[in-house]
Amino acid sequence: MDKQFDILKANRLLILKIIDGLTIKQLNKIPTGFKNNIVWNVAHLVVTHQLLCYRFSGLPLYISDEMVEKYKKGTAPKNDIDLEEFEQIKTRFLSLPDKFVQDYENGTFKTYRSYTTSANVTLNSISDAIEFNNFHEGIHLGYILALKKLV
Question: What is the pLDDT of residues 19-40, one digit of tens each?
Fold first, then answer.
């Protein structure tokens, strides 16, 4: 599982490198043909990882219910966020994978409630969730690359 954790952390660092230097206006911009922006994609990755790995394991999340409702699958930005809020999102984006590894290594994940994703992949274990989450993060890396070209 160490390789999966390395992939998660590397992908998140890559995303932050890709968006480094963009203004908060660019991060909030929703280009024509898209329903979300870069900010939403980054926050969505935080939320999705928490849901796939913690919620379906019956564990409390390290993020607020408000954040879940704002950035879960099927949502779209209702208004722009400011730089301070984005910095808070980035902090979670970088720090929660380390907390996750620690929880995993401490044996925190004991059960898992099966879940079928919108990609029609059924997750039956925390290992399945970790692997699928990395796939999901790769998809959103692609969206972020496309959005960056248009902002």
Answer: 999 999 999 999 999 999 999 9
Q: Return the number of other C-beta atoms located less than 10 Å from residue 126's C-beta.
A: 22
Which residue has 């998660």 as its token pair? 8
Query: In a 3-state reduction of DSSP, which class is residue 122?
Result: strand
Q: Residue 141 in contact with residue 11, Cβ under 8 Å? A: yes
Cβ–Cβ < 8 Å for 38, 148: yes
Contacting residues for 4 by C-beta, under 8 A, at least 6 apart: 130, 131, 134
Nearest-angstrom CA–CA distance, 116 and 121: 5
Q: Is the pTM of this model over 0.90?
A: yes
Residue 122: strand pairing partners:
116
Q: Would you say residue 1 has pLDDT above 90? A: no
Measured over the CA atoms of residue 22, residue 85, residue 108 and residue 116, the dihedral's sign is: negative
For residue 122, the Cα-to-chain-centroid distance in whole angstroms is: 19
